[in-house]
Amino acid sequence: MDQGSYLILQTKYLRARASELEQIRVSAEQARAADHSSDKPLVVLTAAENSDAILSSGLSKQDFEEFQRIWVDDLQMRLARLSTRGRRIMVRGSGHDVPSDRPESIVNSVHELCAEATAPH
User: Fold this and answer.
1) What's the CA gap between 107 and 45, in Å, rounded?
2) Closest C-alpha among 37, 120, 116 to residue 84
3) pLDDT, position 106
4) How far apart are CA 78 and CA 52, in angstroms?
5) What pLDDT shows up at residue 90?
6) Reduced to 3 states, what is the DSSP secondary structure of residue 95?
7) CA-CA 20 to 30 A from 8: which of 16, 26, 32, 90?
8) Of 93, 89, 85, which Cα lies nearest the Cα of 72?
9) pLDDT at 108
């Protein structure tokens, strides 16, 4: 890959990450406003690997570990508790980009949710 191609890809990646971070705020506000989704089936997929190189490069090791602890053990669990039928699944072998790292985990979760939603309870 030549230098120009690398810079274009880097710029696109950084724009995508900035957009994602902006949307995280919106998503968090929506989750707080929802407070509780009753008894609808809910799955929260959480990356099991601490592999966000950009984030970890901007934080001390201790701050990055604290961020990961809050993200995994607090925020992701709060999302799962939005439903009485919610659960969190740690996606082994996946970093932040679950759709690219482990797409089958998303497909499997959608199948499970569809089965739960249509099953009598």
Assistant:
1) 11
2) 37
3) 92
4) 22
5) 93
6) coil
7) 26
8) 89
9) 94
Is this prediction's pTM over 0.70? Answer: no
DSSP sequence for 27-68: HHHHHHHH---TT-EEEEEEE-S---HHHHHHS-HHHHHHHH
- Answer for the pair 96, 52: CB distance below 8 angstroms, yes or no: yes
Q: Which amino acid is at 27?
A: S
Cα three-residue angle 65-31-54, rounded to 5 degrees: 35
Going by the DSSP 8-state scheme, the letter that residue 45 receives in this structure is E
Strands 85-91 and 41-47: parallel
Q: Where are the beta strands (DSSP E) in 1-78?
A: 41-47
Place of tokens 């970093």: 95
Q: What is the mean pLDDT of each run of 10 residues along the chain (121 residues)?
A: 62 71 73 70 88 71 82 86 90 87 92 87 65
Q: Whose CA is closest to 79, among 114, 121, 38, 31?
A: 31
Hey, what amino acid is at 53? A
Supply 40's token pair.
Answer: 């609808």
